[in-house]
Design goal:
4 helices, globular, 90 residues, 0% strand, single chain, mainly alpha
């Protein structure tokens, strides 16, 4: 009986890990999601001390994403969100 229980747990763990992997976004998808998040959050946080610098980082990140350098773009977009005091959701 213990062997059956262990097998069931192993199968469940494998299924959960597969689902978690499917939920992971590619860098290109992260680019899109972070740009959208920034555009929504800058409305509320436009008076943040680093809002101007954050807007420049957002623009730079978008350019990198468009140029196929999604990983670098994601870093810039995350920095832009951090500058306005928002935790990036990716």
């Amino acid at each position: 009986m213990n062997m059956t229980k262990l097998l069931g747990i192993a199968v469940a763990a494998a299924m959960l890990s597969t689902g978690a992997m499917a939920a992971t976004m590619t860098p290109a998808q992260q680019c899109t999601a972070l740009q959208k998040q920034f555009d929504q959050e800058i409305i509320k946080h436009g008076s943040a001390a680093k809002a101007g610098a954050a807007k420049e980082l957002r623009a730079d990140g978008a350019k990198l994403c468009t140029a196929g350098k999604s990983t670098d773009g994601v870093k810039k977009l995350e920095a832009a969100l951090n500058d306005i005091g928002v935790k990036p959701q990716s």
